[in-house]
Design a protein that fits this description.
alpha/beta, Aspartate Aminotransferase, domain 2, Aspartate Aminotransferase, domain 1, three-stranded antiparallel sheet, 14 helices, 12 strands, 38% helix
């Protein structure tokens, strides 16, 4: 490895970082992580900290999970790559599909379409939703509905259904036909309603109003995270996602659950949809599916949707979509090992227990520090604090404050 002076001097010289202004990288050199073990990461200067984010919500089993490393190494020796486009497959993707079918059976999901990651999974679900309606003879169903403050990745489709201006404005114009309703966010919402149950009903009414305005026959799908992640960790009231599902069913609209963060135990349930007792039409997964050790994802598809595709003989169901690395055998091997370890360790119960512990600790911090306006959590290891300059007005903090807190914590 190059010495620390070389790494610090050259980080921003030839490299642009995601989700960061290039000028910021030039002015503020990042922590350069060089090793990790368990739940801890170590930087080039030897400082070691607990990785509270778990990579990017994806290292659910820590950095020392030997069975996954062994599976990757063995698969590199056996078959390091081959495509699963028409006419070829491989043993690992078939084995994994059966395992995923069993894992997602309570969610009513029985088929897998492999991707390279979360944004790919969202893009796939959005496309297949439109195609589903075309196969059924409703080609006018092309629009998408989603939540303000929702996050669905960085492809143009995902950015278009995103509900956060930071991920949209610089790249507009985006995909037409994408419409948003208020998120069930008790701390900040246009209804000035702090009661979660009442707010959920108001948001559901807004959804029904939007469907009536757009015309149900023009809408392909509604996409949502069971617990909103990047938008600020917003757990909806328990009535909200079931209410969305019922409205979608009534209007012939497909429900896409973006489970890229919430699947595989993070919420204290095996999936976010299961947490709320909902069976979606599509579920987008990635992240924890390989414990982050290999870029991989899968869209899980409901039996009722699969039947429409599989029974079609008109040619409309031919899928003209996929990725070079869809069904990568090394990724599939990593996912098989990850899924086995995830179940063996009963990650969901540990996430629930540790999440309660952390939630209680964050609420105690709120009691101590007036700079904390809101604490959100209560569903496994998805928690957040929102900082303010004034609790009464909920005014945003000085822009430098979160950075100062992060620096002190680090």
């Amino acid at each position: 490895m190059k010495d620390e002076n070389f790494l610090k001097a050259n980080n921003a010289r030839s490299l642009w970082h995601p989700m960061t202004a290039p000028s910021d990288s030039l002015k503020n050199p990042p922590a350069i992580i060089t090793s990790a073990s368990g739940v801890r990461i170590k930087d080039v200067d030897g400082h070691e900290v607990v990785d509270a984010v778990g990579g990017l919500w994806n290292v659910n089993l820590g950095y020392s999970c030997q069975p996954i490393k062994d599976a990757i190494a063995a698969q590199l020796d056996a078959l390091p790559y081959y495509s699963i486009f028409r006419g070829t497959s491989n043993d690992k993707v078939i084995e994994l599909a059966e395992e995923l079918r069993d894992f997602f059976a309570p969610d009513g999901l029985t088929r897998a379409f492999y991707t390279s990651g979360g944004s790919d999974s969202v893009e796939t679900a959005l496309r297949l939703a439109r195609q589903y309606h075309k196969i059924k003879g409703e080609p006018g169903r092309i629009k998408y509905l989603s939540l303000k403050k929702g996050y669905h990745g960085t492809h143009f489709g995902g950015a278009s259904v995103n509900g956060n201006a930071n991920f949209r404005t610089p790249y507009e114009p985006l995909l037409p036909g994408c419409h948003h309703i208020p998120a069930p966010f008790p701390y900040r919402n246009p209804f000035n309603e702090s009661d979660p149950a009442k707010l959920a009903q108001l948001c559901l009414q807004a959804l029904e109003d939007e469907i009536a305005f757009q015309g149900a026959g023009t809408i392909a799908a509604f996409i949502m995270e069971p617990v909103l992640g990047a938008g600020g960790v917003i757990p909806p009231h328990e009535s909200f996602m079931p209410g969305v599902a019922a409205i979608c069913r009534k209007n012939g609209i497909l429900l896409i659950a973006d489970e890229v963060i919430t699947a595989f135990g993070r919420t204290g349930a095996w999936t976010g949809s299961r947490l709320w007792g909902v069976q979606p039409d599509f579920s987008c997964t990635a992240k924890a599916i390989t414990n982050a050790y290999f870029p991989f994802g899968a869209v899980m598809i409901a039996e009722s949707v699969a039947e429409v595709f599989e029974k079609d003989e008109s040619g409309k169901a031919a899928i003209g979509h996929g990725y070079t690395y869809s069904g990568h055998p090394v990724g599939a091997a990593a996912a098989l090992a990850t899924l086995a370890e995830t179940k063996r360790l009963n990650v969901k119960d540990n996430a629930a227990a540790r999440g309660k512990q952390l939630f209680d600790g964050l609420k105690a911090l709120k009691d101590k520090y007036s700079a904390i306006g809101d604490v959100r959590g209560g569903h496994g290891l998805m928690l957040a604090i929102e900082m303010v300059s004034d609790r009464a007005t909920k005014a945003a903090p000085d822009k430098a404050m979160p950075g100062r807190v992060q620096k002190v914590a680090l």
